[in-house]
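For reproducibility, we list the full input for the adenosine-5'-triphosphate complex.
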Amino acid sequence: MGVKYMTKTILELDNVTIRFGGLTAVDSVDMKIEEGTIRALIGPNGAGKSTIFNLITGIYAPTAGEIRFMGNKINGLKPHVITKMGIARTFQNIRLFGEMTVLDNVKIGMHCRTCTGFLGALVRSPRVKAEERAITEASMEALKLMELDHKADELAMNLPYGEQRRLEIARALASRPKLILLDEPAAGMNPQEKQTLMSMIRKIQAMGLTIFLVEHDMKFVMSLSDRIAVLDYGRKIAAGSPAEVQRNPAVIAAYLGKEVV
Ligand SMILES: Nc1ncnc2c1ncn2[C@@H]1O[C@H](COP(=O)(O)OP(=O)(O)OP(=O)(O)O)[C@@H](O)[C@H]1O
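The corresponding predicted structure, in tokenized form, follows.
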């Protein structure tokens, strides 16, 4: 008897459009991401990649269309609600607190998610203490995944660049997301740092997470992604496996004839 593999859509963009004044930054984009896969979004500068991340995470609301996460419409919801539902992200530029420890940088991402208010934190009731412990545990777990647990007490600014970027991923992972959006995770890394990052992203995938990344490094994208979507001037011009996308004439033209390797 054969085993049946069911694929489940975790994120769906249905005809999503956003206009800023006269500019259509994202134009009628459809996308379906299967649970447990690595999806990349590529395209020239200004194509609308970060805007798509901002739409998914609730920073912008689409002018038209719908975004569904695990079958539920999420456009129109507040960013913290979307995070709570299981979507986490990192940003294009590093957003760490250099003078804080590695562990605190992860914990601070989680405090936004907990129910303790300012007063509760001052009083430190048993409930608050239990919550604090849970936050520390989840944060250490995330650091371990990114192989930074042995640096928990160091100041963030003392980490090498590649580790600072991994720390940002750890912060996103601490909220135990089902889907993680990585905005140019390999930017500025040397080849060794990229290799390490790639194996860590694969490890996260093996745990059952879905990864959606924007990345300019083609070698990185091509060797890591299950499927790739290509944006140009806000429109999705191609989608498919890395091999399919690489030989797609529209993709090659969008990159001005530059070979996509
Ligand atoms: N809040 C905004 N107001 C007005 N225009 C915006 C806004 N956000 C993005 N844009 C415009 O939308 C277009 C898409 O920008 P976006 O940052 O999504 O591109 P990108 O593909 O991520 O580019 P890059 O690879 O350079 O990061 C650009 O023309 C940008 O100037």
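The radius of gyration is 19 Å. The chain has a mean pLDDT of 90. Both points were considered when choosing residues for closer inspection.
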